[in-house]
Amino acid sequence: MTSRVLAGHSDAVISAKFCGEKIVTASTDKTVRIWTEEEEPKILRGHMQGISALQKIDEDRVITGSYDKTVKIWNVNKGKCVSTYGDHSTAVYKIFTEDNLFASCAHQDSKAYVRDMALGEIVQVFGKKSQPQAQRWGPPQNEIRSLYLAAPLFFTGEINKIRV
Question: What is the DSSP letter of 99?
């Protein structure tokens, strides 16, 4: 296998994923790039601020989170954004996918959303104001730092604890 340098982003590359024969990269330069062996990369634009998270959904789709507070689903074969969600009040920095669900969190708003990709609907909200008063997470010591979705379980990691 020969090594190859994929150059083109103008800022930090935050993640790369394989989607079939393609390599998909995301950057704080606000772009997603789709690289193939034969041609110049496709450049996908749509985020208003830098991208902070990238996950593969399947061979055709990836999902990104951004400092612009949005989550976008991209079709890598068509080279376009197919869905945009603006649920968070601060930068989205973690995304996880499982089956037909995705979870996203923005640790500064202490909320995590689980959404059904086929329906486009939120199926669960975790964090501030989504639980009874006694179970609410408080700022800032309870900021969500990580998440993991293994349906039907959903885990969020905070500074000193994990919620299931």
Answer: T
